[in-house]
Amino acid sequence: MKINNETKVGALTALAITLLILGFNFLKGKSLFKTGNFIYAKVRETKGIMISNPVYVNGLQVGSVYELEETNKNIDTIIIAIKLTKEVNIPNNSLASIKDNPLGTASMDISMGNSKTYLKNHDTIYTFDNPGMIGNVTAKLTPVVDQVKFTLQTMDSVMRNLNSVFDINTKNNMQDVVGNVNRISASLVVSAAALQSLMNEQSGYLSKSMANLNSFTRNLAGNNDKINATMSNLEASTRNLSKADIDGTIGQLRTTVEKLNATVAKIDSKEGSVGRLLNDNQLYDNLANTTRSLNILMDDIRVNPKRYVSISIFGGKAKKQYLTSPLPVADTTAVTVK
User: Which of 16, 59, 100, 110 is the most exposed place for a label (fewest CB within 10 A)?
Assistant: First the structure.
């Protein structure tokens, strides 16, 4: 049987279209036959989720969105079929949410539960509404915007009342008050900067003082045993001091001082040997004269030694006269003994 060219072209065209459809679905993550493990999630809003968008568990992609299907014509509930590409055990109390990304592709995020029972093929996972980053920012900004609007309306009303009540002088005074408030605010800014510098963790004086205080307390804690021993010794010393006969000791000290005063009084008077020695001028003069005579004698012995020690076989020379006064220092050094 001979096949004409038209039939061949038609068959090749049909095969190419079939392969194109299969390849397109494969690139989108959807195969011709619905095989593999599937779980389903019911949501009220898709938030931009589309077929082949990734599904993550703890940041790891475990599957993708296989298809989206509405439950009724009101489209109040949408069923998302999730095809799992990895064999993971997902607890049946896990939660799935759609995570929108304004700068990229939306995705689904599964928060793992703690149940020991896991989802099976074609089971439905619980879902919750995740507002996402933009939703969180909008939810936080909405009350602030409303408050700002109310504040602006209140300020506008106040300013109108002020314009209707205050005269020119009062307005000028208010301007002066506002200028003073601005100067005070500038001073507060400078004070806050100084306080920040003081409390700076790296170079502030307060930080250094706290570091020194911590070091001091650490040293106290390290020397706690020594401090306890010192306090114990001090307590023992005070106990011994309290037991000592302080009155008797003071009485003895007073008696000793009285005796010492009596002795000093006797020395100061002319009674006794010590008193006469210290107070008798004649005794001092006698000692001075004796010292002077002794000096004359020593000088005479040194100048005229032969007068006192003489050894002569044939007779000696005539002796010189005795000294009657001490020799000057120059004369005593110049004399030569013959």
Answer: 59
Q: For residue 117, is it within any domain?
A: yes
Token reading at 223: 């020397």
**323: left (phi > 0), else alpha (psi -120 to 50), else beta?**
beta
The helix (H) or strand (E) run that includes residue 195 is: helix 168-198
Higher pLDDT, 22 or 152: 152
Mark whether 184 and 235 lie in a shared domain.
Answer: no
Say whether both 143 and 78 belong to one domain: no
Q: Does 186 lie in the same domain as 157?
A: yes
Counted domains in the chain: 5
pLDDT at 32 over 60: no
Question: Residue for token digits 């050894």?
Answer: 311
Angle at 18 between CA 16 and CA 20, to 5 degrees: 70
Q: Give the containing element (helix H, strand E) for 151.
A: helix 132-165
First vs last Cα of the chain: how many Å apart?
Answer: 179
Residue 274 falls within a domain, yes or no? no
Mind listing the pLDDT tens digit for each residue in 92-102?
999 999 888 77
| Separation of alpha carbons 67 and 51, rounded Å | 6
**pTM for the whole structure:** 0.35
User: Which one, of 58, 64, 68, lies nearest residue 89 by Cα?
Assistant: 58
Are 132 and 107 in contact, with CB atoms under 8 Å apart? no
Q: Which of 50, 58, 130 is nearest to 88 (CA)?
A: 58
Kindly state whether residues 293 and 319 are assigned to the same domain.
Answer: yes
Q: Is residue 68 part of a domain?
A: yes
> Domain containing 230: what range?
199-244
Distance of alpha carbon 157 from the chain centroid: 50
Is residue 250 included in any domain, yes or no?
no
| Residue 335 predicted with pLDDT over 50 | no
